[in-house]
């Protein structure tokens, strides 16, 4: 019976998305199927592609504020996929409290973690909490590369141990929770990624989801400046990098647990300007507003970081923000956005209904 309700909810919401994307009718305003909660920038890593950890007094709202938001989501978006990240969401206190409360109230809640705090005790707690998935950030397959990227000398060994502990606890408890590895592909690590996929398969984890490097988070770095840095795949490595992504494509086709669709891996090649000849031009319109909603640490409610907030959780309910005239006007601006071909974060990737269904079934086996 529950499964019927879930499919009916998503089916009706998909119909509303298709109608609203053309006619912008208020009565068909859809509920985003992916909701990203980012309650803090606090972090225990010092990643070279992110400056969040430099925030000395990051802005954070109270647990009570987030509790009200989560309670509303349980009513407004009961079957949406909830993704909670930071910063590091398993830091003790406020962030843990938010994550575990969401897991109790919303059945499809997942978290993103660097794994540094996933010792035996925490692994048991996380698995028992009933998260639908735990996404672990590890950006390579060697101690040298991972420690350099994460800015901690213990990063590789600690995260690897966390992956092993999760796999064992899931097997022991027969949990349905999925462990997904999320590497950021960049000039420093692209050559290690096929071996990382093999390690994930060997350890019995559930998938690898690649996203390409973006301008450094919480910085003023431009896309052109990124291309000149060591984080980008440089000209001398382009042929090698192209071969690596082709290898990942073949691994995907042969059954390795790569979550990215082949078309997305091809898009990553174009993103890094690795394709032969002229880059592809994607004649499409952004529809991130139909699928995604971000709730930021300062309370901002947004469809996309590139656009202003449509509300604030301290002043507005989620439903008020989604159905506001401000949201409707912003949706129309999003359709005309010209940055779509450089938006390849996993949260921005536009998935077909079939791809969404495959991902949903993978998370619910």
Write the layout of secondary structure elements.
Blueprint: H1 2-23, E1 34-37, H2 63-76, E2 81-84, H3 94-105, E3 109-113, H4 120-129, E4 133-136, H5 143-150, H6 155-173, E5 178-181, E6 184-185, H7 193-202, E7 207-208, E8 211-212, H8 223-227, H9 238-253, H10 262-271, H11 288-291, E9 292-295, E10 300-302, E11 311-312, H12 318-322, H13 325-335, H14 353-363
Parallel strand pairs: 1-2, 1-9, 2-3, 3-4, 4-5, 5-7, 6-8
Antiparallel strand pairs: 9-10, 10-11
Summarize the structure.
The chain is α/β, with parallel strands linked by helices. It has helices spanning 2-23, 63-76, 94-105, 120-129, 143-150, 155-173, 193-202, 223-227, 238-253, 262-271, 288-291, 318-322, 325-335, 353-363; strands spanning 34-37, 81-84, 109-113, 133-136, 178-181, 184-185, 207-208, 211-212, 292-295, 300-302, 311-312.
């Amino acid at each position: 019976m529950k499964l019927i309700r879930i499919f009916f909810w998503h089916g009706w919401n998909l119909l509303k998305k298709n109608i609203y994307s053309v006619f912008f009718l208020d009565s068909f305003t859809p509920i985003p199927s992916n909701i990203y909660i980012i309650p803090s920038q606090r972090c225990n890593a010092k990643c070279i592609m992110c400056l969040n950890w430099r925030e000395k007094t990051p802005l954070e709202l109270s647990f009570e504020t987030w509790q009200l938001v989560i309670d509303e989501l349980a009513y407004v978006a009961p079957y949406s996929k909830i993704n909670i990240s930071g910063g590091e969401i398993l830091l003790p206190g406020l962030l843990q409290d938010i994550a575990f409360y969401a897991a109790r109230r919303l059945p499809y809640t997942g978290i993103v973690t660097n794994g540094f705090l996933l010792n035996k005790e925490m692994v048991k707690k996380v698995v028992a909490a009933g998260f639908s998935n735990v996404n672990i950030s590890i950006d390579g397959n060697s101690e040298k590369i991972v420690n350099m990227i994460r800015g901690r000398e213990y990063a590789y060994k600690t995260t690897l141990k966390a992956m092993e502990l999760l796999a064992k606890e899931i097997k022991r408890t027969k949990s349905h929770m999925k462990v997904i590895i999320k590497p950021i592909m960049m000039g420093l690590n692209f050559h290690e990624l096929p071996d990382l996929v093999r390690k994930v398969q060997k350890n019995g984890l559930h998938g690898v989801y690649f996203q390409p490097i973006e301008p450094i988070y919480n910085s003023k770095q431009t896309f052109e400046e990124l291309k000149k840095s060591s984080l980008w795949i440089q000209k001398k490595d382009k042929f090698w990098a192209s071969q690596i992504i082709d290898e990942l494509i073949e691994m995907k086709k042969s059954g390795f647990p790569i979550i990215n669709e082949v078309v997305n891996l091809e898009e990553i090649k174009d993103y890094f300007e690795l394709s032969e000849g002229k880059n592809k031009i994607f004649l499409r319109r952004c529809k991130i507003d139909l699928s995604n909603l971000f709730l930021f640490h300062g309370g901002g409610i947004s469809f996309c970081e590139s656009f202003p907030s449509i509300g604030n959780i301290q002043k507005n309910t989620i439903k008020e923000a989604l159905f506001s005239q401000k949201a409707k006007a912003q949706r129309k601006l999003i359709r005309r956005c010209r940055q779509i071909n450089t938006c390849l974060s996993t949260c921005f990737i536009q998935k077909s209904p079939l791809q969404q269904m495959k991902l949903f079934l993978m998370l619910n086996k």
